[in-house]
Amino acid sequence: MNGDPGHLHALEIRGLTVRLGGVEVLSGIDADIRCGEVTALVGPNGAGKTTLLKAILGMVPFEGSVRFCHAEEHGHGKPRIGYVPQRLDIDRDVPMTVLDFFSLSSQWLPVVFGHTRRSRESAEASLDRAGAKQLLHKPLGRLSGGELQRVLLALALRGEPDILLLDEPVSGVDVAGEELFCDFLGQVHSENGFGLLLVSHDLSVVSRHADRVICLDRRIVCQGATTEMLTPETLTAMYGSDPHLLRHSHVHGQGHLHENGCDCK
Amino acid sequence: MTESALIAPLLHLLGHLLPADMASLDFVKRALLAILLIGPAAAAVGVPLVHFRMAFFSDAIGHSAFTGVALGVLLGIHPLLTMVAFGLFVAWAIATVKGRTELSTDTVIGVFFSTVIALGIAVISARKGLTRNLQGFLYGDLLAVSDGEIVWMAVIACFVAGYLFLTLNRLLLLGAHEGIARAMRIRTRALEISFALVTALVVTTAIRAVGILLVTALLVVPAAAARNVAKSVASSFAIAVGIALLSGVGGLVASFYLDSATGATVVLFSSACFAATLAVRAVSSH
User: Which residue among A112, A152, A155 sits closest to B168, beta carbon to beta carbon?
Assistant: First the structure.
């Protein structure tokens, strides 16, 4: 679709329609996630952002197609997806360390019987890269919002993904935590050039980090370069005319703000 | 008779665990063997079950046994067979419906829970005299457990061990977050259904020991106690299984001298362990 060789697609979504309980939650979604770029998925509550992520992950049935082009071209068949959810479905007192959690997906041996050397080393290396090595033996349920995000990101990146999906990655994380998170993510992203899909309702986060924006409200409202998309007109079309939102976007919606040192690209 | 030949040496061995006046009684040793087989198996399944926040699920399966037994008597089939079959059916139905709606797990289980009990009561009330058959299933009868049932429990215990060995990591990952499990290419739906079926097998088997009313306790209480003090997956399994073994022996011995119902006493022992772990937690967090 796009002939520019610098913009290989990591993911191509064509005519994606999701019906849940007879209601069309998403209809006719066409979108591309390009390698080496940050694509932000924005939209009001109930716009179907999470549902679109679920469809990409194969958690909900859908019509249409989701193609992992990068994976197909590189011949390793099945796509490697990194996914960072907002939070885990665990209780605070879950008896599981961060190392346990990493080992669940890196060893055959049930974690009841301990950790293999290989999975311990890979967990250490991944956490170290994310600057979170000190969390290795911490209980998973006791991590702060920022710590959990780093652990989940480290896990998602361990498999060297073709595409990384981030669901509201910095919600519930303080500003310092957000900067740490973005610094690290930006560094890995520029090294590896995977496609990155960022779901966010925070337009200031989007304007600072995203190259491209997909505006979603059960269908695609618009998509394109961040600087072109986050205009008062498109925002009004998507969110209605909330004067606060518009002012907000006007202040921050000027594309990349490199001076704040937290730019994922 | 081959079953007895298999079990006899084990019973002899277990005799050493018990006080002399109990050790001379074969049915007591048989009860001990049964609870030492099914108790730890139930506790081990309980750990992921609690992790999934599905404690209520085992209760629904337990109560489906009520209907299963009633159907067996009604149809003239062995009630144990219909109980297991119906339990598996309800487990499959819950797992399937849960995957197809946006309702919370609790709500789906609640609907099935009520439905199976209503069905059971309807069947029983239509046939007078059925209640007599149900007594043993409601309260369980550990002391009347047969050699054949012990062999069945041993098979189930081995099966559970093998199943958990192969799937535990994936189960725990699925419980932590379905999306991450999917991203790791785990076949989440199949895994969920298989776990529901294994839980149903364990629950229906354990009913023979402690009865419909208490069967959930066998799965949930040791796992919940382990949660109070365990720091890792390994320690939570070790503690849960340890509590199951301890309360199996302790409950059986205590019930012998107190002349109380065996299953209930075993459950009370693990409840006491739960209280103890709460105390340990309170002390250690100070």
Answer: A112
Amino acid in the structure at residue B26? D
Please report the ipTM that was assigned to this predicted complex. Answer: 0.88
pLDDT per 10-residue tile (average), chain B, 286 residues: 79 86 89 95 96 86 87 85 92 86 85 90 78 79 90 96 96 94 92 93 91 92 95 95 96 94 94 96 86
Q: Which residues are CB-contacts of B69 (< 8 A; sequence separation ≥ 6)?
A: B79, B82, B83, B133, B134, B137
Tell me the mean pLDDT in the region A131-146.
Answer: 91
Distance from CA of B219 to the nearest CA of A (A): 17
Q: What is the CATH number of the domain that holds B134?
A: 1.10.3470.10
CA pair distance B224, B240, nearest whole angstrom: 8
Asked whether the beta carbons of B127 and B73 are under 8 A apart, the reply is yes
- Min CA distance, A183 vs chain B (Å)? 23
Containing H/E element for A150?
A: helix A145-158
At A91 the pLDDT is 85
What per-residue confidence (pLDDT) applies to B245? 96
Q: Is residue A29 part of a domain?
A: yes
The boundaries of the domain holding residue A25 are 1-80+162-265
A142 plus A201 within the same structural domain:
no
- Chain A residue numbers with beta carbons less than 8 Å from the beta carbon of B184 are 105, 159
Q: Which positions in chain B touch A54 (Cβ < 8 Å)?
A: 179
Instruction: Give the model's confidence band at A70: pLDDT under 50 very low, under 70 low, under 90 confident, else very high.
Output: low
Nearest to A104 among B172, B182, B227 (CB): B172
Contact criterion met (CB below 8 Å) for B232 and A100: yes
Domain that holds residue B24: 2-284
- A234-243, A244-253, B54-63, B119-128: which is most confident: B54-63
* Whole-number pLDDT of residue A69: 74
- The count of structural domains within chain B is 1
Size of interface A-B (CB pairs under 8 A): 96
Side chain identity, residue A230: L
Are A148 and A227 members of one domain? no
Are the Cβ atoms of B227 and A93 closer than 8 angstroms?
yes
Q: What is the pLDDT of residue A242?
A: 54
Whole-number Å distance between alpha carbons of A17 and B108? 26
- Closest residue to A85, CB basis, from B180, B184, B230: B180
Which helix (H) or strand (E) segment is A215 a member of? strand A212-216
Number of domains in chain A: 2
Distance in Å, alpha carbon of A69 to nearest chain B alpha carbon: 16
Chain A: closest CA distance from residue B232 (Å)? 4
CB–CB contact A165 B183 (8 Å) = yes
Contacts of A66 in chain B (CB under 8 A): none
